[in-house]
Amino acid sequence: MKHISTFGASDYQISDLQLLRNSTDADAMARLLAPCPIMRLAADESIAESQIAHLYIVLRGALAVATDTRTGMADGTISKILPGESVGEQAVLDEEANLNAITALEETDVLMIKAELVWQLIDESHVLARNLLRLLSFRIRAANAQLRRRQKLGEFYRQLSMIDGLTDLYNRSWLNDLLPTMVATAQGSHVPLSLIMIDLDHFKRFNDTHGHLAGDQALRTAAGVLGSALRPTDFAVRYGGEEMMVLLPDTSEKVAVAVAERLCERMRQALVFSDMRLPLPHITASFGVASLQPEQDEQSLIAQADAALYRAKAQGRNCVAWQQTPA
Length: 327
Ligand SMILES: Nc1nc2c(ncn2[C@@H]2O[C@H](COP(=O)(O)OP(=O)(O)OP(=O)(O)O)[C@@H](O)[C@H]2O)c(=O)[nH]1
Known about the structure:
By secondary structure, the chain is of the alpha+beta class. Helix content is 42%, strand content 22%. It folds into two domains: 2-152, Jelly Rolls; 172-322, 2-Layer Sandwich (Alpha-Beta Plaits). The protein has helices at residues 26-33, 89-93, 115-124, 126-161, 172-189, 203-210, 212-229, 253-269, 298-314, and strands at 2-6, 37-41, 54-60, 63-66, 78-81, 86-87, 101-104, 108-114, 193-200, 235-240, 243-249, 272-273, 279-280, 285-291, 320-322. It has a five-stranded antiparallel β-sheet. Bound molecules: guanosine-5'-triphosphate. Guanosine-5'-triphosphate binds at residues 166, 199-205, 207, 212, 215-216, 219, 241-242, 313, 317.
């Protein structure tokens, strides 16, 4: 950054500076700004901020400002500062060194104003104070809008990473995130929580006979059965491969067994189409039901449902098994 002149020795006018637009006291402002240096930046050159904050007004060329690079908040957003516009107001007002990375997009001349002089200008000129407030308000709105966009995007990707792409059911990451909390809530409030582990029967044979794409379609159909047969407060998860899980908050084992029986029946009635013309053979599934016991953790609950599922398979598949005989 090279010192090439001062505001007083240059041809620039107060009317060239947006912050002083509509100034009624241009002469007084010009006198105060006269000793301020005009610095020249080569293209791609960055402004190396000292610990002292400055306000920079672009006189010629353009600056690129990337937000908060040193605080880890950078998100690739870059603002372009054109002639007449300023950067560094906030740094001046809160007396912090500028955390933005400021780089010249082309050869650029900037007016450099020290923080103490900015305060003096604010004291002297209501017009400048008003312009500054308006500018800051605009910047805050823009920052808020950007924050909202970022939050929405973050939530979108978070949701996406929790959903299984093939079946649209929740995936294992979702389960790992949510099940411990659900178990802790149920234990803490002494309300029941039941879990049904579901495994499609002879699915390898289905795949081998009808092809993997038809197998995918069968998985979607099975997921659809779960989705359409549950209460809005229940959750269906693709646990892995052809294994699915249903979580039933506030549900006793007796009711969970009845739900599993209903799912089993609907599963065997569901039609799988590989295309819209010919339905494939029906699929069936085996179901293992478990309900949370006092002191039990989520791993043990899953293991209990798994053991019940194993028994359902051993009993000939296409049926429901559970840990305890419902009363
Ligand atoms: N099409 C398809 N198949 C899958 C997917 N994930 C797992 N599988 C298949 O599911 C089959 C599971 O086979 P096994 O674990 O032997 O169980 P099974 O044939 O269903 O037998 P049982 O569970 O004992 O009734 C394997 O052939 C896997 O390739 C998937 O996303 N799409």
